[in-house]
Amino acid sequence: MALSKIDSDGIVSGGITADSLNIGQIGGRRNLIINGDMAISQRNTSFTNPLNQYTLDRWISQLDTTSARSTVTQESSGGPSGFRNFLRVTVTTADATLDSSDLQNIKQIIEGYNMRHTDQGTSDAETLTCSFWVRSSVTGTYSATLYLNSTGTQYAYPAEYTINSANTWEYKTVTFSPQTTSASWVSSGYTNGEYAQLRFGLMIGSGQGGTADTWNASNKFGASGQTNLFATNGATWDLTGVQLEVGSVATPFEHRSFGEEMELCRRYYFRLINAANEVYGQGFNYGAYVRTAIHPQTTEFRTLPSLEYVGPTTFYRKGTNATNNVNTTGNPWEIVASNKNTIFMQSTISDTSEDGVAGSLYLTGSGCHVSFNAEL
């Protein structure tokens, strides 16, 4: 693509090209993946035996087996050039003989609103390309799978890639051809719900694998016969720089600012860590309830979040306090409504004698945290 330039007399001439600027594809945000550089990890930096749970922000470890086990960690040094962080899977219990239902994959679920410009399911469907940096102690053929799921119609495209050298960062690209056979996705899939998953298969039983490099009309987690990382105890597999974009050619990784990436993550999950009796809500007594409002972020949550917490919370009113241990049975603090910037919580504490009295909601113990979860 050639760009025009205008001199001081207003005369337009050519000569500036995308290639000469070395900026890759021009225009708009390209990467459909959030936290592809593995820089955000609000929950923790180490996860032991994560069977089917979020680890680093937006990344799920899905492990479905009776015997194999692993850890997932966020690493902060030793990544490829341009990347400080990466996700590491370490095999802690090996499983060399797989049952048909065994699987391990690292995946990200993609919201429908973020996929709508790809036109999947129509004759205008776009080719998608995934690029990433990967390193493993076990060489062989692995797969990255694009899974599309809407209104009960499932398609999976396992694309193979090869790790050639052990313990060496390698840059890989795979391409997913357009999916043109489910137009219902256009009307029902482009919402705030799940639309797609990008999956990296590490252990794929015979019943979980599909035909490589084509669309399978079913739910598949990787390519049949791919390398089993979990055959080797202590094996490691590292991932960073993940980009999924429209087009048949991978462009340079889209490095967004840390703050922008954090806001993208907070649409789905936000954790407030306790720090010296930190306030996380302002409110007032109302009849038999304490109602409080919080402004945790400027980004609108994907949906009404759930409230998760560890440690005691105290509601301070008029310079005194009424302690309510939020770990008690029944979870007395709950989210009842939210809009773009405000979450409304209430507790069923009976305190009618001070109806209308204002107060603040605090975290009050070492290691406390409050989380708002709107994950897919």
Binned strand content? 35-45%
Helix-strand topology string: EEHEEEEEEEEEEHEEEEHEEEEEEEEEE
CATH-defined topology of the largest domain: Jelly Rolls
Q: Give a quick account of the main beta sheet: strands, pairing sense, barrel closure.
A: 7 strands, antiparallel
For the biggest β-sheet, the strand order reads 22-21-25-18-19-24-23
What quaternary form is this? single chain
Mean pLDDT: 85
Number of helical runs?
3
CATH top level label of the largest domain: Mainly Beta
- Give the CA-CA distance, first to last residue: 38 Å
Q: What is the architecture of the largest domain at the second tier of CATH?
A: Sandwich
Morphology call:
globular
**How many structural domains can be distinguished in the coordinates?**
2
Helix content: under 10%
Structure, described:
By secondary structure, this protein is mainly beta. The protein has two domains: 28-266, Sandwich (Jelly Rolls), CATH 2.60.120; 269-373, no CATH class. Helices cover 5% and strands 44% of the residues. The protein has a seven-stranded antiparallel β-sheet with strand order 22-21-25-18-19-24-23, with no helix packed on it. It is globular and about 70 Å long. Mean pLDDT is 85; it is low at 1-6, 15-24 and 326-330.
